[in-house]
Every structure is written in structure tokens, then in C-alpha cells.
Input
Amino acid sequence: MFWRRGLLWLAFLGPFFFLSYGYANGVAARQGITDAVVFGWERRIPFLPWTIVPYWSIDLIYGLSFLYCRNRGEVDRHGLRLLTVQLLSVACFLLFPLRFSFDRPASDGTFGLLFDLLMGFDQPYNQAPSLHIGLLVVLWQRYAAADVARFPRLSNAWFVLIALSTLTTWQHHFVDLPTGVLVGFLALWLWPDDRRPPLSAWSTSVGPKGRGLALRYLAAAGLLALIAWSVGSWALWLWWVVTALTLVAVCYGAAGAAGFQKQAGNGRLSPAVTALALPYLLGAWSNSRCWTRRHPQADPVADGVWLGRMPTAGDMAAGTYAALVDCTAELPAPQGPWHYCNLPWLDLLEPEPAQLAEAARHIETARRHGSVCVCCALGYSRSAAAVAAWLLHSGRAASVDDALAQVRERRPGTVLSAEHRAALAASLGTSPAGSCRKTGKPTRTALEHLVGASLSGFARLLTGVSALWLGGAPDPRPRVYFANHRSHWDFVLIWAVLPAGLREITKPVAGADYWLHGAVRRYLAQRVFRAVLIERTPRPHQPNPVDCLAEALAAGESLILFPEGTRNLDDGLLPFKSGIFHLAKRQPQAEFVPVWIENLGRVMPKGALLPAPLLCTLSFGPPLRLAPEETKTQFLARANAALLALAPAD
Output
């Protein structure tokens, strides 16, 4: 039974509350804290002794709340939320200690007894954020989700009375209430009901554009925090804006679109995000209306698909749309009887090829219901890219350029960059099946990043590898690192010596038959290295592997490949396969960097399970490009000679 697990949580949380809360009180008392944040009008708040009853009632509500959890997951999430509120509140009490500055009038009778019991463990410290309010937010959500109240208006009124009692019992100043609300909603955001915790997908390998936007939001939050701290008074409300901008920065920097917690079924944002990020959300909506005020209507593109800004429910009804495909992560969608599909993409970031392919499928599916409105905040970038992908994948556009031209003709002013064009081109190769398999997600999770960093460090430690950049410094532009081949683990060493930033955009090209054999190899290839895996046994109707490699380069990624095609256990080089030439012909702007691996054949001999500890050297030569009018024979000979030139003399 789940109530037993709830009792275990109570057995932990009860003592932890008194120990941590009492410790913070004791520290403030020993320091003789006298600081307070109080507004003049607060002296007009009446002292109402009877409100100690609702104030105390939160203890009973707290204890019973675990009985209304419907499964083990809800029990644990509820416990984690309460624990999070406790930890964050006590941390604030210790870092920013405050004192209640009014002298409470004496009380007698039953109410006086309840006040005496409260003062038995409480002192006039532990103010902002109000732990009482933070816990109340979590408890209110738990009872609302369980839908147990027979008289919801009465129960909601009681929760409101509990919140007001923190003021009318003269336990807290006003500033403690909104800060307590923020802490409560932060706990709800960290431990949501219907999705994974946002920080479980935390990734340190976000792209530079995402990091740049995150830093801008953090800088704005820092500036406003400085103003709020310096000015005080009314400027304290700026802390709400600071919270909103910080949450947005976390989404751009690591948590991704999932941080906005937009519900896939109806497009609503979670109550936690709505509360925490409300200043940002109001700004985003106002910006959407302002920029599109001269062209608020959607534009028809083709076959019942329309492109425009985020509509209202009235817009959907006026346009007689039967479906809405929403490409925003940050704006709530209108509610109505139409078919709804959400593609949560972050603003100002180009979608990944796989996301564009997914968008094309969803738009085509939505057309079965009737006319479709495809929208984003303004209707000029994210949704435009989605519609272009649909035109391309459905055969309504002959090429990427044709798809972009159609979108721009139907809705002038669309903003689609070279990165959008590359992603659209690469999206054509995201279908499963074929002779090559592109693996991995756009960004790694923290665990996958840790595994990759550990493998990289282990490889460097074991082989004592040194990288000699003889042809110039490392460069983030799309490159093909081609090397001599001794072992299945050759690419690991090349990948390991690349700077961390380059490792995130560099994919090895390897044999699917080896790397998909066994769970560990498959995990490393698909989740850590994000390799392009080649099926070395041709099958009918398979696309050319060069297509997959060319799409990766077009998307701004680099590759590691071995043009010999198989492992060479002898000295020298085997004749190069023609694939490297065809790749150079498909992507003439890409640089081909020769890499000579010295000693790895003895470090990891064929058939060995563990490497032998020997020193290894990787020499990176000057980059090559396919010359105009250069033939296949000439290019392969030049690449072969460039690689052999890096081999040490006997």
C-alpha cells in the first residue's frame, strides 16, 4: 500500500523539519539578527488571534496529504517537493537571515495556548521565504490534483485563509509571502507530475547559440537583481522578473524546451512555469502581438496549410481551422475543439533535421482533419521552417531552395537562415532504414557527456597520446578527419584528442555490424559518440551512404572516417575507397584533414579486449579540398600521399 511509503516519508520529513528549522532559528538568534524587510502599510494589518487555528491546521493537512497520492511515483514526488521547499527555505534563512519586527500582542484562552505552543519551537526569525507559504503551495496542488474536496470553494477558501493567517498572526511580513510562493512553485517545477524532471535532461553540450542566449538572459537577470537589491521597496518585485529570466536561461542553456513544461495534449503550460515565468510570458505574448500588428492574419501556403502567428481561440474559429500545429515552447495555445499538435521548439534557435522531419509528418497528419494553421510566436521563422519541411518531404517542393522560395512568396518577411537551409537538407536523410544509420540526440544528457569525458580521459591516460597539429590549429568548421585504420577503436582516440567543443560536433563513421552488436557498444555508438553507422552489406533500395555523410557536413558537423575501408595490419596504406572522393564532390567546401595514428596497432591489436599501455601519437596534417576539375584518381592519390607524408620515417 502506498500509505506505508507515505508514512516513511513523514517519518523522515518530520524530524528533518524540526532539526533544520530549529538550527536556522538558533543561528539567527546567536547572531542577534535585527534586519527586516517591512513596508509602512503593514502596520495597518490587524492582529487576529483566532487565525492561529488555520495557521496550525497546515500540520494536519501536511500529514494527510500523503494519503491522497494514487501511486508510488506520486508519493515520492510529493515527498521530494516538500523536501525541496524545506531545503531551499532553510538555505535562504541561513544566507539572508531576517527578523519579524513587530511586537505581537498578548493572547489568552485557547488561542493564547496555541500561540504558546508555537513559540515553544519558533522564534521571530526564519522569515523570507515563508516556509509556511512554500509548503502550502505544494499541499494545495496535491489536494487539487487528487480532486478529493466535496466542496472545492470551501476548501480553496480555507487554503487562502491559511495564507492570510501568516500575516494576521503577525508571524511574517508581506515580502515573505511572494517569496514563499516562488519557492513552492519552484519545487513543483523541479518535480512535475506528468513528465521527467527538467534537470534530468540537463546537458552540458548545448550549442554555442543556445549558450549565448542563456548568458544574455542571465546577464539581464543579474542587472535586474542588482537594481532590486539596491533600490528595495517597490523594486523588490523585480525579483519575480529575475526568477523568470533565470528559468528561461536554464531552458536555453541546458534543460531545453522541456523546461517550459508545455503539455502535448492541449498546449497549456504547467502552473509552475506560468507562475514562475509569468513576466517573461507576458513579454513574449506582447512582443508577438506588437511585431505582427500590421499582419495579424495567417497566410495560405498550399493544400489547406496556413502559416501565421500564434492564434487566439477567436482566430481559430474565424479561420475555420480544423487543426493547429504549434511550434512554440513558451506560449500557451488557444483551447478549442480542433486537433492540436505541439512541436516545442525554442525561439531564436534553428530546429534540428530530425525535428523538421517530424514537423513534416505532423502537418501531413493534421491535414486529415481539414485546414491546418501552423504557427509560432510571429509566424516568420520556426513555423516557416516547419512548413518548408512539409513542402519538401511531401514532394510539393522539388528542392530546399524551392521550398524556401514558396514559403517566402506566400508569407513575405520570413526569416530562414543558412542554418535553416542546412537543417532542411539534412532532414531528408532522417528516415529510418537505409545503408547508413545516424544515431544520437542533438545534445547529450549529463550522463552521456560524463561517459564520453570518462572514455576520452581513459584513452588519453592509457595510451599517453599526444596530438600534433602540424597543419594548423583545431577549427570548428565542418571537417572530415581521415586516418589510417588499425582497430575498431581508432576513432575513439581521434575523438578523444579533439578539444571538448569539437567533440560535440564530430561524429565517427563506423561499421554497423560491429557497433550495433551488444548493448554496451550500441549505447556508446548511439548515445555517446552519436556515430554514423554504415551497413557494409549492400541491400536493395538502400540509399547511398555518402548521402548521410554529406547531410552531416551540411548540418555543420564534422566526421571521422577511414578511407581504406577496412583495418590494415601491415605497414603503409591500402588503396583508398572512392567514397571519400564522392563526399568531397558533394561537399566541396568541407576540409579533409589527414590524421596519422602511430602505435595504435600495438596499443589495441586485432582481437584484443583491453589495450596495452603504450605511447601513441596522432599527427594532424594540413587540410585538403577538392580542386576544380580534379578527377577521382587524382584526389585519392593526393589524399593518400598527404596521409603517408605524416607517417614517421623508419
Q: What stands out?
A: The chain has three domains: 2-191, 292-427, 436-644. The longest strand covers residues 591-598. The CA atoms of residues 94 and 522 lie 48 Å apart.
